[in-house]
Amino acid sequence: MNLRESIVDGLVDVRTHKMRTFLQTLGVILGVASLVAVQGLVDSGRRQATKFFSEFGGLTKILVVNRPVKATVVTARQLASDGLTWSDALAIRQEVPFATQVDPIAQAELPIRYGDYERTNDVTGATPDYTSVYKFYPARGRFLIPDDIESQSRVCVLGDTAARFYFGNEDPVGKILTISDVGFKVVGVMRRKEFYFGKGDHNALEWMNRQTFVPLSAMIARFSGDTRKRVQYINVMVDKVENNPKAAEAIKAILLRRHAGVPDFEVINRAERMRQRAEQNQAFDVVFLVSGIVSLVVGGIVIMNIMLASFQERIREVGIRKAMGALGTDIAAQFLVESILVTSIGGTLGLALGVGFAQAISALIGQPAIITMKMALVGVIASVTVGLFFGLYPAVKASRLNPVEALRYE
Predict the structure, then answer these.
(1) What percent of the residues of the chain are helix, what percent strand, and what percent coil, each to the nearest 5?
(2) Residues 6+ apart with CB under 8 A from 324
């Protein structure tokens, strides 16, 4: 019996014993479905997070934030530290070789007035690097320029939502917006930013559209009056992700030196955070992966037992074949082909069920699932491997059968 005849014989056996085949493959179906569904959802989540971060800086961004020292007794040195300042940002720009943009940010809640609109809103003091750091560019007019910083210009740039809040349907460019009783000329409106996780309707980047930007120098000189020029946080863009750890260490060293050794700041390496989060999620991935593997192993054991039972039923058939000249390898190949055929059918059904699971969970949690060709191949290969491994023992046992004893078997 050649390979084609073995496959045909196996298909006939499957068709003859449909319920037995279904029970044989149930473990494999559930195991493959579990692997495909979980990997599809995990991969989708990973891609969504990477795409989300790429919308405002990507993985080459390092964020430096104020982190006041928490201690019962505060030392004089800690009290003397100013926290993050504009001067810190300038030092980072000059001394960190991997830094391509450095953007210090100062924010305050200030009363804003135009016509009938009068409300307290967040105002952001920024530098021209902001657009490159956040990949956030003007739709009309312009963003802040170096001359605005040097001259403390009374100009402002609005996010799309902020412009509609203040001016309704009017074109705000060229009009005067009153911020804390100081008139600021609107010189630009930013392009609208949008990002939705899955099929959700919440714009995760709406906070960017609500912003009102003024030059950082004007923010400090006209509103805070802070002679130490303190800022809330500093964005640092690095030339490539591989240099993030070196840049983060260099930033820490510079700030510790400038803050007299007081660690009242935190350097957040976004790429490192993503890696740590991925490692934490790996625990869940492993749990689901082990569950899928356990299902496959249980399915394999069931297949082996039923193959052994089938072998008992077919002892005379095997004996006749061997008496007619069939080699042990021919018999073994026949049983292995049948085992792999059954698990392949289970793997295919499991793949379809896994896609269905992933789509159902995706609809439930509002997050798309991504089933790649690689995942499908992993599912099919896993099922074939189970068939090969657990079909081996019945195949070897059948191949070693003595034809004389087999023909005497009742």
Answers:
(1) 60, 15, 25
(2) none
